[in-house]
Amino acid sequence: MASIYDEMNEKTKENIQKSFLQLLKEKPFVKVSVRDITTIAAINRGTFYLHYEDKYDLLHQMEDTLLRGLEVHLQRLKPDVLLLEAEKGNISRFSVEVFRYIQENVELFQVLLGEHNQFGFHKRLKHFFGNHFIEKIVQNQHFFQDLTIPKDYLSSFAISAFLGLVEQWLDNSLAESPEEMADMYIQIIFFIRKM
Amino acid sequence: MASIYDEMNEKTKENIQKSFLQLLKEKPFVKVSVRDITTIAAINRGTFYLHYEDKYDLLHQMEDTLLRGLEVHLQRLKPDVLLLEAEKGNISRFSVEVFRYIQENVELFQVLLGEHNQFGFHKRLKHFFGNHFIEKIVQNQHFFQDLTIPKDYLSSFAISAFLGLVEQWLDNSLAESPEEMADMYIQIIFFIRKM
DNA sequence: ATACCACTCAACACCATGTTGGGTGGTAAA
DNA sequence: TTTACCACCCAACATGGTGTTGAGTGGTAT
């Protein structure tokens, strides 16, 4: 079914996304116009609207792709192991996979979570992790049962803490390896325990 | 020095900000035009530009005021106690004051950190806490010295975790009291320790 | 040969923006 | 009381991005 038209279509979309990303590195989202994008992509402005409703749609689709990729990435490499390990309290494997995926998509993550973060991707990421992992962990863990703190607060606390690490990593231009980051994550937890 | 002109000026600015906030509750920032604001404020559109450069300037000034208020609020109520207590590891007083201030300015915080968070206020808040408190604590605490984790990561982790609690609180329409929130914060730390 | 496809091009109406020049009524100082 | 000043109003303007449309081009499949 992959006709030559589908290929053209795909190529143009990639061209648009690449140009868009390039612009987002230079200036904030609000300052990027469809004109800018199509000028850099060297295509007609009307062509843009054949693929996307507007620049918000473009951004949203790129976010979707990124999150879907993360989901697939996690499910493919370790089908159920991750969740099982996570439920046992072992977050190491889980987190290293996340850090790896981020490393593979640095540019986009840096732009979406970076200084000009003027689109609520932070919130989307929070919801993603919340729906996919943390809440399951928080709900299933037997030793969470006797905790008086509401689950939603604990969940939001944990995810944000993790995202805090990720954001700092991105700010540091990925100076550490994914393994080092996963290690750091564990160490912080241990550190708090011994406090 | 508070002439009648200053009062008029101030009143109009408050009017603009109030109308702006009202609109932000209805729709995302990008969809709010200067026309919308001045229509609701029942003033001439040109008048808006006598007070603000554009809607981004307006937003930024409101953020500034909010952060300056938080700073003053913290400094006024307990001049140095907060930092001293915090440096001793007692974050209770510190955090309850923060929760109280947020409660006093729910509407704005909810809009700035809420679902339509399309302006990097999350990042600004992170920097604020980072510069004012956490980094001082992290740097001064003697028992942080033998920790191998880089300070910036620990700082980002801690602040984000705290903001995670705050954001969940806002999402829950401030169902808990500031004291309960501060308590919850402490409990989570203790819980991690016992994990 | 015909229909289809992605894309180009030019033109369009629409709307928000930021600015300007002139005007109003109330305030303060001469 | 006159004069200058002030915040604000009003109308008009050029600018520029937006989304859409109709006509046209050159390859592709049938």
Give me the oligomer status. homodimer
Question: What sequence of helices (H) and strands (E) makes up the elements of chain A?
Answer: HHHHHHHHHH
How many E-type strands of chain A? 0
Low-confidence stretches of chain A: none
The end-to-end distance of chain A, rounded to whole angstroms, is 60 Å
Tell me the β content of chain A: under 5%
The biggest beta sheet of chain A reads: none
How would you describe the shape of chain A?
elongated
Largest interface: A-B, 44 and 44 residues
The whole-angstrom Rg of chain A is 19 Å
The amount of helix of chain A comes to over 70%
How many discrete domains of chain A? Answer: 2
> Which structural class do the helices and strands of chain A define?
mainly alpha
Number of helices of chain A: 10
The averaged pLDDT of chain A comes out at 88
Domain HTH tetR-type (chains A, B): 10-70
Pfam families (chains A, B): TetR_C_8, TetR_N
InterPro entries (chains A, B): Homeodomain-like_sf (IPR009057), HTH-type_Tx_Regulator (IPR050624), HTH_TetR (IPR001647), TetR_C_Firmicutes (IPR039532)
Protein name (chains A, B): TetR/AcrR family transcriptional regulator
Q: How does this model look, in words?
A:
The structure is a homodimer of 195-residue chains. The mean pLDDT of chain A is 88. The longest helix of chain A has 23 residues, at 4-26. The first copy, chain A, has helices at 4-26, 34-41, 45-51, 55-77, 81-87, 92-104, 106-113, 121-140, 151-171, 178-194. With 195 residues, chain A is mainly α. Chain A has two domains: 1-52, Orthogonal Bundle (Arc Repressor Mutant, subunit A); 56-194. Chain A binds chain B through residues 30, 56, 89, 115-120, 122-123, 126, 143, 147-150, 152-161, 163-165, 167-169, 171-172, 184, 187-189, 191-195, and chain B through 30, 56, 89, 115-120, 122-123, 126, 143, 147-150, 152-161, 163-165, 167-169, 171-172, 184, 187-189, 191-195.
